[in-house]
């Protein structure tokens, strides 16, 4: 089962990103910091759906948590840095066109328990989404309006659901069992709804962002920084050339 409408062009683009990021993904395994294409995709979806603009120099360190070695490798390797920025722009374009999708190669198992956790494609994606959501928690709180809050929370739960089976079973027992729906029923319903949930979550974030832009005409559009040359000024704002600042 695929969660995205199959698109050969997108599949090629995503495979290209996966290949470009293989070095940093392999390095993360050596550092015992699990990272995968699906995790990065989920994180960037959460990031691009946010109601604010965020630069790569802010979100790349957050993507790799407290692991400074992986962060340094991502920031100092020009090819890896550019691959992450290009991937961000690819995701942002989908969201601006109101048509975000799960990874083209994501496969969902017919055995429901196999879709949970870091051993599964969907579980990895959900964890990346959770990482972005937790990092941007205060941003969402400040931008959220009451009429959207409950709907946003429900969508967040659905997109996070497959990260951990034990947690999701407890959530079902506490909130949903009284409605007469089994855990398996909830899983199947969520899987069917996930593609539209993805679109709805992104739509909310983009509309909140656009409202902020309209109220502050000087605000810059939410796009990633362009490719940084070695002799360009560093995007961190230090005033130094990139090769003498964050490239090293």
Condensed summary:
The protein has helices at 8-20, 22-30, 37-48, 56-63, 68-76, 78-96, 121-135, 137-143, 146-160, 165-175, 183-215.
Account of the protein in words:
The protein is an all-alpha fold and 248 residues long. Helices cover 61% and strands 0% of the residues. The protein contains eleven helices and no strands. The termini are far apart.
Helix content: 55-70%
> Would you identify the regions where 5 or more consecutive residues have pLDDT less than 50?
222-226
Total strands? 0
- C-alpha termini separation: 44 Å
Largest sheet, strands/sense/barrel: none
| Overall body shape | globular
Backbone CA Rg: 19 Å
The helix-strand sequence is: HHHHHHHHHHH
Class inferred from helices and paired strands:
mainly alpha
- Treating each run of at least 4 consecutive H or I residues as one helix, how many helices? 11
Task: List descriptors.
single chain; 11 helices; mainly alpha; 248 residues
Give the topology.
Blueprint: H1 8-20, H2 22-30, H3 37-48, H4 56-63, H5 68-76, H6 78-96, H7 121-135, H8 137-143, H9 146-160, H10 165-175, H11 183-215
């Amino acid at each position: 089962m695929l969660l995205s409408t199959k698109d050969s062009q997108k599949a090629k683009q995503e495979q290209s990103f996966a290949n470009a990021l293989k070095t940093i993904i392999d390095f993360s395994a050596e550092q015992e910091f699990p990272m995968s294409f699906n995790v990065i995709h989920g994180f960037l979806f959460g990031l691009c759906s946010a109601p604010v603009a965020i630069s790569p120099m802010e979100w790349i360190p957050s993507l790799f948590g407290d692991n400074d070695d992986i962060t340094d490798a991502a920031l100092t390797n020009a090819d890896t840095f550019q691959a992450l920025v290009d991937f961000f722009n690819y995701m942002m374009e989908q969201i601006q066109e109101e048509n975000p999708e799960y990874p083209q190669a994501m496969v969902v198992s017919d055995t429901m328990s196999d879709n949970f956790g870091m051993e599964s494609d969907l579980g990895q994606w959900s964890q990346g989404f959770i990482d972005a959501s937790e990092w941007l928690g205060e941003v969402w709180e400040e931008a959220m309006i009451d009429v959207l809050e409950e709907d946003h929370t429900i969508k967040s739960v659905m997109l996070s659901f497959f990260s951990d089976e034990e947690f999701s079973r407890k959530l079902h027992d506490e909130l949903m069992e009284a409605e007469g729906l089994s855990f398996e029923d909830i899983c199947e319903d969520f899987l069917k709804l996930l593609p539209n949930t993805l679109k709805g979550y992104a739509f909310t974030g983009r509309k909140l962002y656009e409202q902020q832009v309209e109220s502050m005409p000087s605000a810059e559009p939410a796009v990633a920084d362009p490719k940084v040359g070695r002799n360009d000024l560093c995007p961190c704002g230090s005033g130094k050339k990139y090769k003498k600042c964050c490239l090293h």
